[in-house]
Amino acid sequence: MKSVLEILKEIRPEFDFAASSDFIADGMLDSFDMVTLVAALDKNYGISIPGTDILPENFQNLQTIEALLRKTGAKL
Amino acid sequence: MSLIQTAGQVFDAVQKAKAGATAYCTNFFPVETKLKSWIDHGEMDMELHDGAAFFFRKNRDFLHFYFCAADAMTLQREITTLSRMKTERIVTDLVGNEAALNGLLPALEPAGFRRYARLQRMARIGQPESITADQQIGFAEAADSQALLGLLEKSFDHFGEQIPMLYEIESAVENRQILVARRDRALAGLLFFETQGLASAVRFWTVAEPFRSLKIGSALMHCYLKAHAAVRRFTLWVNAGNENAIQKYRHYGYAPDGLLDHVLANEMIHP
User: What is the spatial distance between Cα B90 and Cα B87, in angstroms, rounded to a whole number?
Assistant: First the structure.
C-alpha cells in the first residue's frame, strides 16, 4: 500500500509536499487535483470518501488528509 | 430561483446535494474570493431541487450553469425541469478526462446541451533555460481597463472562454495580474495570469491585430516567465482545435496534461 505522500508525489511530482503545511495556499493542489487525489486514495485504501468531505480544508496538508482517511475507515 | 446573497448559501446548498449522495457529480468548484465577488455584483442565483442544486451566473448576454447532484440520474431528472433551459442562452462546462466526460454528457443532453467547444489544459514544469526581458512590457494600469476588455472581447469567444467582466479586469490590474505591451502608446498585447503559491496559470494571452508578427507575444511570455522564477507549475487552457496557439505554447515548454474542458451550449445558442 502506498503512503499519502507517495500518492501526492505521483499526482504532482514537481512539488515537495513534505515541506508544505498548506497545499492549497501554496498552489500545489487545485480542485481538479483533489478529485484525482480522492479517486487515488479510495482505490489505495479500499474506502469511499463521502462527497460531503471533499472540502479544501480536508486536503490542506498531510495531517488533514490522514485525519480524513482515518475518519473514513482507512487503516494507515 | 433565488438571488444568492452570501457564499454560505452556496456552500449549504452544495452540502445538501452531497448529503447521502452515492455518485456525487458536479462541475462547480468555486474559488471563494471569486464566488464572493460574483455574489457582490448580483450575478449569482440558484435553484434547489430534490437531490440537486443548480447555480446560474449572469455573464453579459448569457448564463453560466453549474450543477451539484447526488448522481447522474438525479441530474438528468431535475435538469429537465428547469424552465430557463428553454428561454435563456446558457453555457456549461464539464472538466475531466474523456471517459469521465462521456459519463456525464448524456445527463445534460436532455436539457438541450450540445458540444460547443473543447479546451485542453497544458502544463509546463519549472523555468526555461534562458529568458530575455523586453523593456516595453509592463503591468497594466487602471486607465487601460476598458481597452483590455475590448481586446479580450475581440480576441476570444465569450461563450467558450469565460472573458472577465470589466470589474474583474479592474481588480486584476490592481493586483498586477495583467502584463501589457505598448507600441506608440497603443495597447498592442496582453498576458493575463493568476498565480497561487508555486503555481501560475495564463488566463489570456493575445496580441492586437495590427501588431502581430512583431514578436510582441513572445516578449509578453518571456516577461511573464521571468517574473515567476519561484513558480514550479505553469498551466493554461487552450482551444483544442487551435493548432496555431497549441504550437506556440509547445514552443514555451507547455504540453497537454490530459485534462479537458468540454464547453456545452444549449439550444438558444446553437439550435
Answer: 9
What's the pLDDT score for residue B269? 95
> How many CB atoms neighbour CB B220 within 10 A?
24
Q: How near does any CA of chain A get to the CA of B168, in Å?
A: 21
A37-43 contact pairs (CB < 8 A, 24+) = A37/A7, A37/A8, A37/A11, A37/A65, A40/A7, A40/A10, A40/A11, A41/A4, A41/A7, A41/A65, A41/A69, A41/A74
Distance of CA B256 to the CA centre of its chain: 17
> What residue segments make up the domains of chain A, in order of their start?
4-72
Amino acid B168 reads: E
Residue of B nearest to A23 (CA): B197
Q: Note the pLDDT tens digit of each residue in B67-124.
A: 999 999 999 999 999 999 999 999 999 998 888 788 899 999 999 999 999 999 999 9
Q: CA–CA separation, A28 vs A56, rounded Å?
A: 12
Dihedral in degrees, nearest 10, Cα atoms B180, B166, A32, A5: 60
- Cβ of B135 under 8 Å from any chain A Cβ? no
* Amino acid symbol at B263: V
Any chain A CB within 8 A of the CB of B147? no
Alpha-helical regions (H) of B131-197:
145-155, 166-174
One-letter amino acid at A63 equals Q
Residue B226 grid cell: 521571468
Name the residue facing B125 among A14, A51, A54 (closest C-beta): A14
Q: What's domain A4-72's architecture? A: Orthogonal Bundle (1.10)
- Residues B126 and A15: beta-carbon distance below 8 Å: no
Place of cell 508525489: A9
Q: Are B138 and B193 in contact (CB under 8 A)?
A: no
